[in-house]
Design a protein that fits this description.
Blueprint: E1 4-8, H1 13-24, E2 28-33, E3 44-46, H2 52-65, E4 69-74, H3 89-117, E5 120-125, H4 129-132, H5 138-158, E6 163-170, H6 176-179, H7 183-190, H8 201-212, E7 223-226
Parallel strand pairs: 1-2, 1-4, 2-3, 4-5, 5-6, 6-7
Helix pairs in contact: 1-8, 2-3, 3-5
Length: 234
């Protein structure tokens, strides 16, 4: 029976591309999102990462219908950009709760089954801004940096049970989030990227898919940049 992979934020962008890549690689890939629906004929489940009850219900549903979750890709994320002097409490807490705490809720629930099975893969989707920082994204960068510390701590905590935990740090990718940047801002960004282009979601998905597979069995606690060289040296 195919291994089950659960991808949060799996209905669009990097998450959707990852679910499709995992399906192509032979996994039973389940797209988790708030709406509980996904395109491309993927199995889907309703999951709100800001709710422990929703996370528990979603995992239980996947376990009943498909089997234990052997791969978790914690990808769900939001942005609430703005200068810190104008950033509201909600802007801060909502981004941290979704992007960082939400990933930990999912990792905690996934780890229960993985510890029993003495195997598993957890991949946390961070961002190049975890190390570079980003003006106007203090909340987002803090959450993405937190994922690196969390991932490395989980790698130490769970490694003895055969569970790997890694972090993928994309740069600027052709998604809904970057579509709103505008031509001038996009040109500014590309001027800093050695490869001089945005990534496709599939390029990020391929890195995640590798970490989820057998060939990555001795890789844990790593931060894998998929950023066209933007963050090199960090």
């Amino acid at each position: 029976m195919a291994a089950v992979a659960l991808v949060t934020g799996g209905n669009r962008g990097i998450g959707l591309a990852t679910a499709l890549a995992l399906r192509d690689a032979g996994f039973t890939a389940v797209a988790a999102c708030r709406s509980g629906s996904a395109p491309e004929g993927l199995p889907a489940v309703a999951l709100d990462v800001t709710s422990t009850e929703s996370v528990d219900d979603a995992f239980a549903s996947v376990e009943r219908e498909h089997g234990p979750v052997e791969v978790l890709v914690a990808n769900a994320g939001i942005t609430r950009d703005g200068l810190i002097l104008r950033m509201s409490d909600d802007d801060i807490t909502e981004v941290l709760d979704t992007n960082l705490v939400g990933a930990l809720r999912c990792a905690r629930r996934a780890a229960k089954g993985m510890v029993r099975a003495r195997s598993g893969r957890i991949v946390l989707v961070s961002s190049v801004v975890w190390a570079l920082g980003s003006a106007g994204q203090v909340n987002y960068a803090a959450a993405k940096a937190g994922l690196v510390g969390a991932g490395r701590s989980l790698a130490r905590e769970l490694g003895g049970r055969g569970i790997t935990v890694n972090v993928v740090a994309p740069g600027f990718v052709e998604t809904d989030m970057t579509a709103v940047l505008g031509e001038d801002r996009t040109r500014e960004i590309l001027a800093q990227v050695p490869l001089a282009r945005l990534a496709s979601p599939r390029e990020v998905a391929d890195a995640i898919c590798f970490l989820a597979g057998e060939r990555a069995g001795y890789i844990t606690g790593a931060v894998i940049p998929v950023d066209g060289g933007l963050g090199m040296g960090h």
